[in-house]
Amino acid sequence: MDCTICSSFPMIIRPPRNTICGACFEGIKCALALVSSSELESRLADRKLSNLTAPNKGLGDLVEWIKYMKNVERELNERICFLAGSLTAFADQIHTDILIKPGDGSSISTHRSILATRSGIFKNMLDSDICKAPPQDSTIPIPELTHDELESLLEFLYTGDLPPEKIEKHAYPLSLAAHKFEILYLEKFCERHMLRSLNVNSALDVLEISDICLNQKMKERVLGFIVRNFEEVAFSEKYETFCSKNPHLSVQITRATLAEARSNRRPSGEVCSPKVVGRDHGGVFRI
């Protein structure tokens, strides 16, 4: 079909008819459905954009909505640039008032207010008598983090983001630290990264972290991935060490794999009845 939207033919030689292909038609339907969603309608109404909250919306309204969203994006970028000044205060050590000691290397100076507003655990620690001493004498130890990992943690607390190379390198320890100090946004940030980059080599590590952090949703997704790629995972170098360290998780992997194999083997609706395979002193063995 000669689509008036996506066709590669020049407009001047295109036949004079208004037809669109199925892909463009479905795309426009999805876009209009997005504009019509209740959440967006409430936001648009709050912005006094009544023409975009009318019952009947067309392509003209879609264009207006795209322009509006571009303005929102620009405003958000300006806000991010404004808030980035807090990272400068950390990088230049402007009026820092507390030290955090990592497991290795020197202590890092930071701001109590940032710690207290980002984590309830940090707030409780700062409210204790041990942290009410002068800045040079007040130190919070976090021995489970290295100096580089602690720097990345603090950078995230100041900016709410991390460069790709840092989250790639420190996702696992940062996820554990986020769970320990109840930094929910950092937990979600690390979870999204770990699931996006999930592969055979990382699956066991991510499963262990999801178990420690009590993240059942992520755990189920990783278990499903391991079951689908069980042969590769089971014959990887780290599998034996993983099983020795996490016997309960290895049992869960085995059970999930067997359950998947059984469901694939059994015809739909068929119930497998027990089979007598032997007797011993009057007992019956069944499988």
Automatic annotation (TrEMBL):
Protein's job: May act as a substrate-specific adapter of an E3 ubiquitin-protein ligase complex (CUL3-RBX1-BTB) which mediates the ubiquitination and subsequent proteasomal degradation of target proteins.
Any one biological process term the GO annotation gives: protein ubiquitination
Pathway: Protein modification; protein ubiquitination
InterPro entries, A to Z: At1g01640-like (IPR044784), BTB/POZ_dom (IPR000210), SKP1/BTB/POZ_sf (IPR011333)
Endpoints of the signal sequence: none
Name this polypeptide is given: Uncharacterized protein
SMART domains cross-referenced by the UniProt entry: BTB
